[in-house]
Every structure is written in C-alpha cells, then in structure tokens.
C-alpha cells in the first residue's frame, strides 16, 4: 500500500529543474546582497576608520541589526518592501553588513601608523594613500570579512523562501512540512555545499598574491556581479491574479498539485511562509493564498474562503493523539482529554484564533475564558502524581488547545503538566511523540492520513470524501503502526482552503475555486 | 633656507612647541636634540606639514609653506623616519619609486635613478624585486634613505633615522651617511635624542626642552659655552667623548711638539677630530707614530699617543680660562 520509498538521488534527478533554479536563485540572492553589502559596508568602514568617533555608534547599530532574528527581519520588510526578492536582498544585506564594516575598519586601523605617516610624508594625496596603501594592506582582513558575510548569507538565504524569494529554502521548509526527508536533504545538502565551496574559494582568493594580480583584480567585483545576475527576479505575473502558497501546500496532492490536475487552475504562484502570507494578502501583495479554514487571521484581515466545489481538500478534523504507553501510565487521562470532544466548531475556533492572532490576547487567557464559558474550568489541584508532557505545533490554534488541555488536566487530575509548545511542524512534533519526548499533541485527520501515513492515492481519493471514514482509517492505522491512539475529535475542521480578500471576491464575483479558474482563464 | 618664526603648537592642554624661531641655511645640517616629549619631532613635522602649527609662520626660501596643497610641498622634501615606513606590499624598487611615480617621471628615468641609488647605498643588486621584510635592518634604512633622496630634494627631514638600528650597524651607517656626496649639498633637519649622534652629524645643534629652544649653536658652542645649567648638565655624562669628537688637530696644533717634517701623502688632515686620531694611533702598534699636516702651511708633525693626549689636555686648560 505504501509507496516505494524514493531515494534521495532519484528525487534530485526528478526535481533537477527545480533544484537548478533554486540553487541559482540561492547563489543570486547571496551574491546580489553581498555586492550591495560591500558597496555600503566598505565606504562605511573607511569612513569610521577616518572618523574614529563614529566607529562606536556605526558598529553598534550594525551589531544590533545583526541580532534581529532573521525571520523577524523578513517580517519587518513586508510592509516596507512587500514580498519577493527585494525584501530578501535587503534583509541579507543587513546581515552581511557587520562583518564587512567591522573588518574594513579593523583592517585599516590595524595598519602600522608609521606606514601611513610615510605615505603622507612622501606627498601622496588622501585618495592615493587610501587606494595605494591603506586598502591593499587591509585587503586580507577585508576579504576575511567578506568571507564571513558570504557564509552567513548562504545560510540566511534559505529563509528567503518564507517571503516568496525562492532559493533552496523552498525544498528545506517544504520538506519539513511534508515529512519528506529527501526533499529536506535536496535543499540542505546543496546549501551546505554552497557554503563550503564559497568559503574555500574565498579563502583561496585571500591567499593569492595580490601583487601578481593587479591587472585582474577588477575582475573580482565583475565576477560577483555576474553570479548575482543569475538571480532573475521572478518574472512578472502572466495572470491577472497572484497566488502565494506555503511550501507545504506546493508539494501536496491536496494542495497545488490537486488544484492543477483537478481544477486545471493555472495561476502565477510564489512560495511564501505561512507566517507572512495572510498579511501579504491583506496588503494586496497577493490575491489568492492557501490558508487554513479556522485561522483567526481570516477574520482579522478580512479574507473569505473560496468554496472547494470539487472537494480536493480532505477533512482535517482535530483530535488529540496519545501514545498508548502514556494512556496506560496515566489512567484517567483519556477521560480528561475527551472533555473537549465536540465542544469547538469551525466558527468558534476561528474566533478563538482571532482573539490570539489579532486581539493579541494570550493563549492562556483565551483558553481559560473558553473553558469558563463552557463550565469546564476547575482550579488546579496541584497534585504530584507524575508529569504529562503536552506538545504543540508552532501556531496559535495549537497553543490554545495545549493550554486548554493543560488546565483540564490540572483541574481534574493530580498530574503535573509540562508543555513543549512550538515544535516546528508536523514532522518534528510527530517525531517527538514517537520518541517519547511528549505524551500527546493535537493532530488533524488529514495530516495524519496524507503526511504521516501516505497511503495509496486511490485509497486517499476514496476515503477523503467522508470525514468519518478518514477518521476511522487513521485511527486504525496509527494504532497498528505506531501504537498511538486518536481520541474523539474536538469538532472543528481546520482544512486547507483557498482564500481571497472578501472585497475582491465580491467585486470579481469569485466565490468558488471553479469560478476562480474561469476568471483567470478569461483575463 | 628654512625659517621658523614664533611657531607654537598645542595638543589639548599641552604646549608641545612654545614660540620657537630659527633659521637653517642652505646646505646646513641642523640637529634638533632633546629628551622625548621636548617638542623636537613636532617641530620637524611642522616643516612638511604633517602637523599644522597653531601660531607662527614657516617658510622655505622666503615662501610660506601653507600656500599650496601639503602633498605638493612634501614631494619636494625628503623624509626619513626611524621605522623606515617602507610599504610592506611594495618591492624595494617600487618603494624607491614612490615619489617619481607621484611626479610622473617616465619609466627609464625612474629605473636609472633607482639603479644609481642602489649602487650608492651599496645595496645588493638583486634586491630590486625583494620585499622590505626580506632585507636586514640596515639595508631597510638605506632603502628608506634612497626613497627620500630619489627626487633629489633640496631639503631632507630626518626623524631619528638611525634610532631603530643596533650599535654596530648604526655607527657604520652614520659614517657612510657623513661621507655621502648626495647629502653634502642638502639642507638637513634631523631629530635625535642621542647626543653622540648629534655631535657627529650636526653643523649646528638646537637643544630643546619643554617645547622651547634652550640653546642653538655649533657643537663647540654647546660644549664650551652652555647658556644654562640645563644645557651644561645635558652633555655632562658624555663630555669627554664629545670633546674628543669636537676638537680637531688644528685646534690643538700649537700644543703639539715642534717636530716639523715634510708633508706626505698619507698624512691625515688637520680637520680630523681627536677621537679619530686616537683611533688611528692606537691601531698603529707599540710605537705609534703618525703624520699630521696643516693644509694651509703644508706643515706636518710626527707625534705619538702620549704627545696627542698632552696637547689635548693643554688645550682644555686654556679653554677653561677663556
């Protein structure tokens, strides 16, 4: 039933087109940003070497920029520069700045002052001192800075896929979401190789005798420009609407592949992270996105779901999945977890998500308010009968559910609770469960079926029409294959959905996916 | 001719150079002498505008030096420094050719002049393509000198030019330096803290302390006519050695015994200092006998070590009563 495991090599040959494009995009992103960082950083370094008083503040600011988490920096860029290549290059440029400025400064300041005095005393002008003495002598240190910046950039450029700028991150993060190790490796290995090769190349350049290379030294920036040119800024849209799909959605039969094969939808698509996708739609960077039907941002950003009239999105009913061993170890756990069964429908979940995502209430408060309103909340009993470990994936809904379960367990049993929230993605979360790092976490039937079990496509087609058949199937299969139990579903269906801005949907009169396809075909 | 008039320079609250004036004649060697921090290096660097004075004027051949761009001034003034300041990424030939390149000489002229200097400074012929760190300290200092002299400037400024060398190398280069034809026509201002070196090389010495000139005059003036307690004490520890160097055979001629003989070719000049004469005598064996001639009168005397030191003693006695 289960498809023959693909080897990494066959995956890479099969996807060689994509791999080549992504590698070139990756190189392009790295080098364009590197070149800009040199253009900005080198003069800044020279300036602060001339005016030492500025050095502290300039290096301080560059240092602070460096410490901003890369995904946050990419997030800041969206309102300013939108999505795609521009914000990614600016973010990478910011990361590359510090090593270049600092090494230029250190390189020049570190030159024996007698040599500079001699250059002045012989009658060289300031420019001549800079070009003939200071820069050549500081060059090894400056190159070391460029080398550091390059390696940093190759790494950070993997994150560019979050904001639709392409690169090898598309495979890496797509693979993590899809539980596809081959896909992860197909992105990670070339990225690592790029870093190692570029590092070696630059260390080679660093060791070259520059005296002998005077005539060809101008080729170096030219070379960077050329490689930078590989990066073709994504071709302008050939359709009137632009779509942004998560890497996970891109690779799934119940995602982009299904849209193409079953609906025949041909829309200009970029790959983008879930974290910034909704905002990009709100800010009209994108028109169609692949969201989740209960996402609070749906409400927050005024988006509307397009009806899946051909039924390609399988049901994603949420239910806690628990290790069989944990159920035996903690009697009574099952009953407590089932307290939530059937209590939350789609609109309630969307509202709860809206309160955390948009109103910025803490998941803890949202969970407590909900439990109180349903009469389920009890004060913690603070018992010490063993610790139950709750996991959750890294998005708001899972945090809220984890909080609810924590409160229920503490109020109804004597167990203690440890929460391990924010496990990044299905694969990581599920691996944690299988390896006894957590006792349970909320999972979705569709994910269990398509990501974790991955049965024969024909079978998928036949059972996903019906939510109960899907549930029964995963429940049986998980018990048999992993000794993991699916408890009663919570009630809501967080399935994939295509969504648009409500306003635009109304204006274009597009409310179903078929209507979307027809609209695109005629415009 | 270099003229400093009422020149002052402050660094923060410290008065590094305090209202000094002097003139250096064409072809003269003036040595700025003093302990570290006395303002001698600051004074030197103001002459080629590596440091700009706060007050006063400096002129060369009657023309104030702040009229033009500093780099144009500097290309006309040779500059030698203690740490050579050679460019580590340039070969010896390129180092020597820095100023010709700035002055846009053609390649042949530069090469010819470089070869000439390499020969004059007795540098190995194959050093042209070497990098400075491949040379010895003494050789590096010679390259530094060659670089300063390549464009044949009328004025050469030297900042402790032999300071970084060991004693043996140093005395070798000093005597070479004195003998260099290339330098004899130059107006030289040199900074040193080494009294011996100052007496060896200077036409006049400018003794400085706390940014002011204590005394300016010939080495003999400083030895025998100190203007202050400071000036006298500054030389005390090395007085005898300095006197040997300052006093020449001509000075003590009248105290030498009257043993006139015919002048011979081998005779030492009467302008030889007593120190050198003693060196010659003591290396001549058990019965040191040597010839000295008075160039004007064509007179010569044959003397031994004993007679020389007696004459020197009498000369000093008389100097005391003068």
**Strand portion of chain B, in percent?**
15-25%
Uncertain parts of chain A: 233-238
Sheet/helix structural class of chain A: alpha/beta
Measured distance between first and last alpha carbons of chain A: 43 Å
CATH-wise, what's the superfamily of the largest domain in chain B?
P-loop containing nucleotide triphosphate hydrolases
Helix fraction of chain B, binned, reads 25-40%
Radius of gyration of chain B: 22 Å
Rg on CA atoms of chain A, Å: 27 Å
Residue-averaged pLDDT of chain B: 86
Number of helices of chain A: 25
Taking pLDDT < 50 over at least 5 consecutive residues as the criterion, the unreliable ranges of chain B are none
Walk me through what this model shows.
The complex is a heterodimer of chains A (523) and B (322). By secondary structure, chain A is an alpha/beta fold. Chain A contains 25 helices and ten strands. In chain A, helix 19 links the parallel strand 6 (387-393) and strand 7 (416-423). In chain A, helix 2 (16-50) runs antiparallel to helix 3 (52-67) and helix 2 crosses helix 10. The model of chain A is unreliable at 233-238 (pLDDT under 50). With 322 residues, chain B is an alpha/beta fold. Chain B folds into two domains: 2-243, P-loop containing nucleotide triphosphate hydrolases (Rossmann fold, 3-Layer(aba) Sandwich), CATH 3.40.50.300; 248-321. Chain B is 39% helix and 24% strand. In chain B, strands 6-7-8-3-9-10 form a six-stranded mixed sheet, with helices on both faces. In chain B, strands 2-1-4-5 form a four-stranded antiparallel sheet, covered by helices on one side. In chain B, a hairpin with a 2-residue loop joins strand 9 and strand 10 (212-217). In chain B, helix 9 (195-201) runs parallel beside helix 12. The chains are: A alpha/beta (523), B alpha/beta (322). The interface between A and B is medium-sized, with 18 and 24 residues.
